[in-house]
Amino acid sequence: MLIFVLNMCLYLPQRRLIRRNQDKILHRLPDEEFLQEIERMNGTPKEVVQHPELMEVFLPILKSDFKLSEEYIFTETKGKIDQHITIIFGEEDSINIQSIHAWSDVTTGSCEFIQVAGGHFYITQNPDLIYRIVIIKNEIHRSDVFLIPV
């Protein structure tokens, strides 16, 4: 998911809001099953996943990253931002739609949702489309756009 905010650079801690539609905790899967899930997400080139020497190095790193993502507990902070935000998300992502729409709770400004083709890594599948969306939003709001991939 990509979030951009006009007039400011913003870090939005996603773990408070995003909940994936998943029945299993990925970082606890056996290595082979974990690698199959990684390939299914299309975020890691098959050439990397199928290269034993590379995976020997990167598998523990990937599993640690998933563990952090799956087990992190966000501590609520006070206040909302007073900016327009646009949420771009892939239609095939495992993030549930309620979690995506929960981003509107972090702003007193307007919040817009744009669904694009693709999964969690839609930005690599549709870079030209994402570029056009950012340019158009920049023109509409006549402001600098700061991108925050989430």
UniProtKB/TrEMBL annotation:
Residues 22-132 form the Thioesterase domain. InterPro entries: AB_hydrolase_fold, TEII, Thioesterase. One of its GO terms (biological process) is lipid biosynthetic process. Belongs to the thioesterase family. It comes from the Bacteria. This is Thioesterase domain-containing protein.
